Amino acid sequence: MIFEATVEGRTIRVEVRGGAGRYSLSLDGSPLELDLVSAGGHFASLLVGGESHEVGIERRPEGFVVQFPGDSVTVGLAEAARGAAAPAVRAHGPARLTAPMPGRVVRVLEAAGAEVAAGQGLVVIEAMKMENELRSPRAGHLLEVSVREGQAVEAGALLAVVG
Fold this sequence. Notes:
By secondary structure, this protein is mainly β. It has two domains: about 1-85, Glycoprotein, Type 4 Pilin, CATH 3.30.700; about 95-160, CATH 2.40.50.100. Helix content is about 0%, strand content about 60%. It has one helix at about 80; strands at about 1-5, 10-20, 20-25, 30-40, 45-50, 50-60, 65-70, 70-75, 95-100, 105-110, 115, 120-125, 130-135, 140-145, 150-155, 160. An eight-stranded antiparallel beta barrel has the order 1-2-3-4-5-6-7-8. A hairpin with a 2-residue loop joins strand 12 (about 120-125) and strand 13. The longest helix is centred in the middle third of the chain and has 4 residues, at about 80. It is globular, with a radius of gyration of 17 Å.
């Protein structure tokens, strides 16, 4: 599979071969070997070029956020590149915002009843010693906020509902 990804404002050509957790990549022509093992929920263990990394992976409408201890990297995928791998965006019905990993709610940015835009920050969670702003999956009314500041949450916990 060949596609373009934008990382830290730079667009790169990515070629991916393999599957079942073992991949050969080419990043702008530079080869890279990657092993990926799911660690449950939104966590994964990556072996990249002989180095091991424990990461959290959050799927976003525009791509992914890969969370390393102390850092995170946003990987944007061009619309044409995502193809069948893109998450389905529902135009109707409520959209649920869930915690991508266990953590603690640091801030609730909007109250129930607020009108929100797609991508607008709703909740900030501290996980793996970093803060992660979780955004609205689509525009609409914030029907429910299920958490409060200071609350501990597990991966997959319901944070908010946008209708």
